[in-house]
Each structure stands twice: as structure tokens, then as C-alpha cells.
Design brief:
40% strand, 1 helix, 70 residues, alpha+beta
Amino acid sequence: MSDTTLVRHTWVAFGPAGALGSVHEVEEGYTFRLLGDTSPRSVYPSLVIAKSALHAALENGADWPEFREH
């Protein structure tokens, strides 16, 4: 993903302690960042897959986050 990629929509992922990261719709599909990431992760073909990838990147046993569109 380049620095000039246009973000179309954003969903923030929340867990019990607050925000965990975010999913972004970009021209190529969907990507995500966890808090503390310096750059976006891989691009995925669908929102569902990107949300699943974000969940998989959390600590083992983490509950499914609540995603809120912003």
C-alpha cells in the first residue's frame, strides 16, 4: 500500500478496554492496522476477511471486537 492510497471508509475495532485497531476500505480492497502499527497490513478482498484478519492478529483467545463505522 502506498502513502497515496485513498481511504474510503473506516471501521474502528473496540474490545473491553477500548480501541484495538481499525479496518480501512482502500482502492484495492480492505486493510487494517492495530494500535501501534506504523503501517497498514496486507490488503484483503472483502471487509469480512479484513475483520477476521484483524481478529486473528489479536492476542490468543481475544473476543471478537465490536466494529463501528466512522
